[in-house]
Structure formats: C-alpha cells, structure tokens
Amino acid sequence: QVQLVESGGDLVQSGGSLRLSCAASGFTFSSYDMSWHRQGPGKERELVARITNSRSTMYADAVKGRFTISRDNAKNTVYLEMNSLKPEDTAVYYCHARRVLPLRNIDYWGQGTQVTVSS
Fold first, then answer.
1. What is the distance, to the nearest Å, from the Cα of residue 25 to the centroid of all Cα atoms in its chain?
2. What does the angle CA 48 – CA 30 – CA 67 come to, to the nearest 5 degrees?
3. How far are the Cα atoms of 18, 34, 102 from residue 92, in angstroms, in the given order?
4. In angstroms, how far apart are the furthest CA atoms of the chain?
5. Residue ranges of E strands in 8-112
6. Gyration radius (Cα) of the chain, Å
7. Are 85 and 18 in contact (CB under 8 A)?
8. What are the backbone dihedrals phi and psi of residue 112, each rounded to the nearest 5 degrees, phi first?
9. Chain center to CA of 7
C-alpha cells in the first residue's frame, strides 16, 4: 500500500522557519521524482519545489532562496526546509511522487499538512 505522510506543518510568525517531512512507503522511493506543492486559501494548487531521482532541484520563483528541498533515500523521506516565511506562504502543503515512464507517469499524493504564517 502506497503512503505519503506529511508532517511538520504548524502556525509560525512571519520571518520564522519550518521543516516539512514526507515519509514514503509502498514504492521504490529512490526511483521517483519528489516534489512539494501547496494550495493557499482560494488558490489553485501550485508547485513549490522538486527534486528528481538524480537529485536535481528546481524551485518556484516565489520561494527561491528561502526554501530548500532535499531527500534521504535511506529513510524514504523528502524534506522541505522553509525559512523567512511570509504570510503568503500560508497553505496546505502536499507531497507528490512521480515516476516518469515511456508511456505514462505514475503519481502519488499525500494528504497535506497545514502551514499558517501570521503577520
């Protein structure tokens, strides 16, 4: 059974930091690209950061220089270190796993963890 379990969401003041974790099970974690997405109040879900199975990373412009994505394949866990948080970072943060195959992709999603940044 595939599971992605996010943790680390919290209420934090503007300028603060949080570290999100996503523990994966039920699939070959090291073969998957992992990413964090978020959905703020009244907004569409958006990509925040991605780390490929070869550890290449990319970030949304809104979080560059403030957020860092990393992965620990031995622990089947992906992390999102968030610094200098702003009220506009308030959202539910979702973990996503994708394996790119020639004819299709395989996608898994977590249930999300709430991050609230107060001004």
1. 16
2. 25
3. 13, 17, 31
4. 46
5. 11-13, 18-25, 33-39, 46-51, 57-59, 67-72, 77-82, 91-100, 105-109
6. 14
7. yes
8. 100, 155
9. 10
The C-alpha angle 114, 118, 119, rounded to 5 degrees, equals 150
d(CA 55, CA 70): 8
* Strand, helix or coil for residue 88: helix
Q: Tens of pLDDT along the chain (119 residues)? A: 999 999 999 999 999 999 999 999 999 999 999 999 999 999 999 999 999 999 999 999 999 999 999 999 999 999 999 999 999 999 999 999 999 999 999 999 999 999 999 99
